[in-house]
Amino acid sequence: MNNISDAIGVIAQSADTLFILLGAIMVLAMHAGFAFLEVGTVRHKNQVNALVKILTDFAFSAIAYFVIGYQIAYGSHFFASAETLGADNGYQLVKFFFLLTFAAAIPAIVSGGIAERGSFRPFLFASAMIVAFVYPLFEGIIWNGNYGFQAWLENQFGAQFHDFAGSVVVHAMGGWLALVAIYLLGARRGRKPGIAFAPSNIPFLALGSWVLIVGWFGFNVMSAQTLDGISGLVAVNSLMAMVGGTVIALIVGKNDPGFIHNGPLAGLVAVCAGSDLMHPVGAFVVGGVAGGLFVWVYTKLQRSSKIDDVLGVWPLHGLCGVWGGIAAGIFGQQALGGLGGVSIMSQLIGSVAGVIVALVGGLIVYGIVNKVASLRLSQEDEFIGADLAIHKIGSTNSDK
């Protein structure tokens, strides 16, 4: 009997390892979505830079998270023998891989906001610092119970801050960090309030959106991290929020393809926090509100002379992420068809805490880096475009 039990245990551990590995691969693929969403939105002279930023940011994020960030968040490190690290089919290593793909989403989000005028190397260094120190600080507070914040919320309001897949921990953090960088950079030269630069390639923009949509089911469903925790409720709630965001963005955005392809992403951002709690109808409403919120705020920002958010990452991730954190406390209630176990006050406080950490952390990191090396391209480099100025090659070549 012991042999049978041991065999079952090994199979179960192997299944969990494979499950979270597949999730890590799906979320890793989402970074291609970030890349092509940006490529399709920026002008032709900045397309190569968009592709390069996403890949290099991921690489530097991996180093920063491996060496520092993961230890800050979870108190674990990888400076041990391969035999030790490979225990339990290497589950802890694969868990790190999965959580790394979340951490690396932060610079990918910021990249879209600072596109076309952000200096390459300074932002690369700043991204590493964010993933090493700022993001894991809040990640550990929420997902590992560090510093007693979650225990205090539970004691005061009867429930901890609930963020199943990162509406606030990942998306709001990324969006509000981006807002700091966007404000420090200022607007692109030649941009006038009310007159936006048109997207360079709608098919690439759409491709980026679709890659993100598909990968998001790994982002949300596989946040369970073990096979026995998998939930069809999470999958269908993600689907319904995506649909809700698409429909409302279509209506409010008046058929604009940019809004239509960002609407589903807004819905998916918002549903992350409560996707394991809500009723599918509630998820549809949450996603719809997020889709409308994105279109409305992004449209307003086009009239701003100070906030030049190229991809609209602050409304998409920052505001819709906060909405998702709060919405989990509303639509997660049993009275609205949810599973319960959440507190409105805990969701409000936790969401605000995420915004504060992002704003303070962003001001410190980006402020220091900007003092050492300017975060902004020179006027000449911005004029000729980041592709030629930094990478010495354009995105296409018409030579025969």
What would you say this structure looks like, in words?
The chain has 400 residues and is mainly α. 72% of the residues lie in helices and 0% in strands. The longest helix is centred in the first third of the chain and has 40 residues, at 2-41.
* Fraction of residues in β-strands: under 5%
Please provide the count of β strands. Answer: 0
* Mean pLDDT across residues: 96
* Rg over C-alpha atoms, rounded to the nearest angstrom: 21 Å
Order of helices and strands: HHHHHHHHHHHHHHHH
| Overall morphology | globular
Fraction of helical residues: over 70%
Distance between the termini: 72 Å
Protein name: Transporter
Domain Ammonium transporter AmtB-like: 19-392
Main location: membrane
Keywords: Ammonia transport, Membrane, Transmembrane, Transmembrane helix, Transport
Which key features would you list for this structure?
400 residues, mainly alpha, 16 helices, globular, transmembrane, transport, Transporter
Describe the SSE topology.
Elements: H1 2-41, H2 47-74, H3 82-85, H4 87-103, H5 105-113, H6 120-143, H7 149-157, H8 167-185, H9 202-221, H10 232-252, H11 257-271, H12 280-301, H13 313-331, H14 344-372, H15 379-384, H16 386-391
Helix pairs in contact: 1-2, 1-4, 1-5, 1-9, 2-4, 2-5, 2-6, 5-8, 6-14, 8-13, 8-14, 9-10, 9-11, 10-11, 10-12, 11-12, 11-13, 12-13, 13-14
Membrane topology: Multi-pass membrane protein
Keywords: Ammonia transport, Membrane, Transmembrane, Transmembrane helix, Transport
Organism: Shewanella saliphila
